[in-house]
Amino acid sequence: MEANISFRLNGEMVSISTDPLRRLLDVLREDLGCIGTKEGCSEGECGACSILLNGHMVTSCIIPVGAVDGQDVMTIEGVSKTEGGKIIVQAFADGGAVQCGFCIPGMVIAAYYLLSNNPNPTEEEIRLGISGNICRCTGYDLVVESIKLAAQRGGDVWKR
Q: Domain span at residue 153?
């Protein structure tokens, strides 16, 4: 059974006719071309599919697309175009926090969410903020240092 589902994706309204029980992750990647959102565990545990839903970080692999009808969805493609997102991406590159890149979209989303809500986090708060994201290559120290760098570089960008 298909339904018409409309939502704001990275600032633009989109409409799709699909099974409302399909995973949001699949619709984002297969139908809407947001391939930066990755599939890792398919259980909401690894963070590779993290997105912002109405400004809150969630894992898109466990959300049915019907649940986002009328909502606001931001993927890594949208975050990376914001001023704050650009700062985070550059800090990750400068800080050596990127190796294979598979976990990075989710890590950037987590960093963006954290810094948007806490522009001056402690190291403990950063580690807690990325705790739902798994990285098997770089490890967390370089990611933490890169988020510290983004916080320093962002200044007023993070203040609402």
A: 80-159
Task: Supply the DSSP symbol for 150.
Answer: H
Which token pair is 114?
Answer: 């954290």
* Structural contact between residues 71 and 27, judged by C-beta atoms closer than 8 angstroms: no
- Are 101 and 38 in contact, with CB atoms under 8 Å apart? no
| 50, burial (CB in 10 Å: exposed 0-12, middle 13-18, buried 19+) | buried
CA dihedral 33, 4, 43, 84 (to 10 degrees): 50
What single DSSP character describes residue 58?
Answer: E
- DSSP secondary structure, 92-107, as one string: HHHTT--SS-SSHHHH
CATH classification of the domain holding 88: 1.10.150.120
Three-state DSSP state, 48: coil
Q: Residue 15 — φ and ψ, nearest 5°?
A: -130, 140
Asked if residue 60 and residue 22 are part of one domain, the reply reads yes
Query: 5's torsion region: left (phi>0), alpha (psi -120 to 50) or beta?
Result: beta
Whether pTM exceeds 0.70: yes
Give pLDDT tens digits for 82-92.
999 999 999 99
Q: Find where tokens 């565990």 sit.
A: 41
